[in-house]
Amino acid sequence: MRAESSGGVLLVIAAVVALIWANSAAADGYLQFWGQKITLGAGDFAVTHDLGHWVNDGLMVIFFFVIGLEIKRELAVGELRDRRAATLPAVAALGGVVVPGLLYALIAEGEAIRGWGIPMATDIAFAVGVLALLGKHVSAGAKLFLLSVAIVDDILAIAIIAIFYTDRLSMLWLLGTIVGLLVCVAMRRLGISSPWAYVPIGVVVWFATLESGVHATLAGVALGLLTPAGEVRGRKVLDTLEHDLHPVSAFLVVPIFALANAGVPLGDGALAAAYANSATWAVITGLVLGKIIGISGGAYLASGLRWGTLPQGMHPWEVFGVAALGGIGFTVSLFITDLAFADASLVSDAKVGILTASVIAALIGVIALIVSPRAGGGGSGREA
C-alpha cells in the first residue's frame, strides 16, 4: 500500500509535468525529445523506434513483469487463492470490464470504435494513492477489495491486449517466444534460482515477442507468471524479485511512461475539439459510469447470490466508492490508446477523455468514501 500510494503521487506529478511541457513554449521540444530515433541491436537483429515507443515497448516490460509477479502471488498464496474469497472481486472486476466496454461501443463512432478496450483498465497505483489519502476514513477491507479487483482487472486487460490488439502475427517469431519460455521452465526445474541467470533468455523472449506481432510487454507478464511462488533452494525468488523491482516500476518506469504519454496539447482549440469527439465521451462514460455500474453491480450481484462475501470490515456502501476509484484508468488506458489508434487526433482525444475521467472518478470516489458509514470508523477496519 505504501509503495503504491507513493508511486501514485509520483505518477500524478509526472503527468502534470508532461501536460505543462506539451502546452508550453517548449512544446516542440517535447515532441522532438520523445520522437528521436534510437536503434538497438545490429544487422538482422537491429530494431529502430522513437524514444516514446522504446518506453512503451521496452521499459514497460518491467511494469508488466511486476504485474505478472503480483498476479502469480495472488493466485498462489494471496487473496485469489481461496475460491470463495476470489469470486466476489472477480465478478466485480468482470463487470468493471464488460460494462465500460459496452458503454464505449454504444457512444463511439467510426474509427473510434476500435478503442473499446480503453475504459476497461484500472490504474492500481493511482487508485491506491487516492485511497491512501483518506486514511482512517476507509476500512482495511475496502483497500483489500480494491487491490483484489485491480489484480483481476489486470488479468483481463492483459488478455484483451493479447487477443484484440495484435495487428499481425509471425508464427516463426511466436514459436521463438514459446521456445524461450520453455527454456525458462526447464531452468526452473533444474533449480536455477538466480534472477540474473534468466536475464539473457528474458531478453530473447522479449525480442521474439516484439517481432512476433504480439505486444512485447506481454513477454514480461508471461515471465512473471512463470516465476516460482515457493522457495527454490532456500531462496524466495518471487518475493525477492517483487521486493526489488516494485520500486523500480513504481518510481521510475511508470512516471517515465506518464511523462512520455500524458503530454496532450490542449491549446488552439484542441480541448474543445476533443470534447466534440465521440471517442472522448465514450472514454469518459466508460471509465466513470461504466466502472461504477460494472464493479458495484458485479459485487452486489455476487454477494446477493452468495457466491462470495465482501472482505471483513468492509461496509457495503464502500463498494460504490471503490468502484468509482476503479474509473481511474490512467496507465494501462493510455497504453491501450496507443495500440488502438493510428490517427494522432484520435489518440489525443482519447487521452483527454482518460485525463478527464480519472479526475472525475477520483473526486466521486473520495466523496463517496468520506460520506459512507465507514467514515470515522477506522478502528474495526484495522482489526479486519
TrEMBL record:
It is a multi-pass membrane protein. It catalyses: Na(+)(in) + 2 H(+)(out) = Na(+)(out) + 2 H(+)(in). It is found in: Cell inner membrane; Cell membrane. Its main location: membrane. The keyword Transmembrane helix applies. It holds the Pfam family Na_H_antiport_1. The chain crosses the membrane at residues 51-69, 90-107, 113-135, 144-165, 171-191, 203-226, 246-267, 279-300, 320-340, 352-371. Keywords: Antiport, Cell membrane, Ion transport, Membrane, Sodium, Sodium transport, Transmembrane, Transmembrane helix, Transport. Na(+)/H(+) antiporter that extrudes sodium in exchange for external protons. HAMAP family: NhaA (MF_01844). This is Na(+)/H(+) antiporter NhaA. The gene is nhaA.
